Amino acid sequence: ERLAAASAPLTPGTLKDGTLVPLLANLGSPKDAAAAVELGAEGVGLFRTEFLFLDAPYAPDVASQKASYKELLEAFPGKKVVVRALDAGADKPLPFLTDKNEENPALGRRGLRALRHHEEILRDQLTALAQADAETEADLWVMAPMVADLEETVYFVDLARELGIRTAGVMAEVPSLALMADQVLTSADFVSIGTNDLTQYTLAADRMLGTVAAYQDPWHPAVLRLVAQLGAAGKAAGKGVGICGEAASDPILAVVLVGLGATTLSMTPAALADVRAELLGHTLDEARAMAQAALAAPSAAAARAAVASVSSAS
Ligand code: PEP
Ligand code: MG
C-alpha cells in the first residue's frame, strides 16, 4: 500500500480528460539516465551528445561513441530515446569542427551546418548510433539541430536512413523551419521544438548576452505562434511535435504548449513532477483555450496574465 502511494505520482503524463502527453527527459550524459528513470521519465526527448566531443582534440571514433550510446539505450528498454546529432558552434565551439573567428557564431556555421561541412563526423555519429540501436531494445529516434528548411531536412533524413537509422527528424529552432513545417514534415518523421534557440532567433536576441536577456522569454506570443504552426503541421501530417527546450519545464506553459499541439514534453528531470501535476489539472479543451488566450496577447507578460485568467476560470 505504502509503496503504491509512493509511486502514484510516477504515472504517465496525462491531462484531466485522460489525454496522454508523454513526459521525457533531457539528458547530457548516460550517467544521468538512472536518476531520470527514478523521477518517472517515460523516455528521453533530448540526449545532448556534445559531452562526447567537448575537450577532445578530434572527434571520437565509432567504437567509443557506440559504447556511450549503448549505455544510454540500455537504460530505456522499450522506451523512446531521442538523440540529437552533435550541436557544435555558437555557445558550444569545437576546434575540429567550428570556426572560432566567426563574428556572430549564433548566426554562423553551427549545428547541422557545421556537420554538413565535415560530413565524416556526422557519418561516424549516425553509424555508431545505428550500431548501438541494433544491439539494444530502446526505440531510437535521431534528430539534427539548427535546421532551416526542407532541403536541409532531406539531406539529414536521407543520410540517417542510408546509415541505418529508422526514425529521423529535425529540431525546430530556426523560425524558417517552423514557417515551412508542412514541407519539412513530408520528409522528417518528427520535429522537436528547441524553444531556447527558437526564442533567441525569433526575437533576434543572443541567448548568451545578459543585456538582452529579457527577450529570451518563450511566453512571447511570436514564439507561441510558431509553435502553433508546427503543431498544426504535425497534426495534418500525423507526426509528432515534441518540445525539448526549457519552456517545457514551466508547468503552466507546458499546458499551453500542449494546447498548441505539442504531443510530448521533454525537460530536465527535476521538473517532471511539477509538470505532471499541472497537466492533471486541465482538459485538452482547457489547454486549447489557454493557448488561444496566449496567442492573442501582445507580449509575454500579457500572455502569462491572459492564461492565468483563463485557467482560473476553468
Ligand atoms: C533549444 O535550443 O531549445 C535546445 C533544446 O537546444 P540547446 O539548449 O542545447 O541549444
Ligand atoms: Mg538549441
Task: List unreliable stretches of 5+ residues.
Answer: 1-9
Rounded radius of gyration (Å): 19 Å
The set of bound ligands, ions and cofactors reads:
phosphoenolpyruvate, magnesium ion
- Shape designation: globular
Helical run tally: 14
Give the percentage of residues in beta strands: 5-15%
**Neighbour order of strands in the largest sheet:** 1-2-3-4-5-6-7-8
Largest sheet: 8 strands, parallel, barrel
What's the helix-strand series? HEHEHEHHEHEHHEHHEHEHHH
Structural class: alpha/beta
Question: What distance lies between the first and last C-alpha atoms, to the nearest angstrom?
Answer: 33 Å
Tally of strands:
8
Which percent range fits the helix content?
40-55%
Mean pLDDT: 95
Q: In a nutshell, what does this entry contain?
A:
It comes from Frondihabitans cladoniiphilus. The chain has 314 residues and is α/β, with parallel strands linked by helices.
Topology overview:
Elements: H1 2-7, E1 23-27, H2 33-38, E2 43-48, H3 62-74, E3 80-84, H4 112-117, H5 119-134, E4 139-144, H6 150-162, E5 167-172, H7 175-179, H8 181-184, E6 190-193, H9 195-202, H10 221-237, E7 240-243, H11 251-259, E8 264-267, H12 272-279, H13 284-296, H14 300-313
Parallel strand pairs: 1-2, 1-8, 2-3, 3-4, 4-5, 5-6, 6-7, 7-8
The protein binds phosphoenolpyruvate and magnesium ion.
EC number: 2.7.3.9
Protein name: Phosphoenolpyruvate-protein phosphotransferase
Family: Belongs to the PEP-utilizing enzyme family.
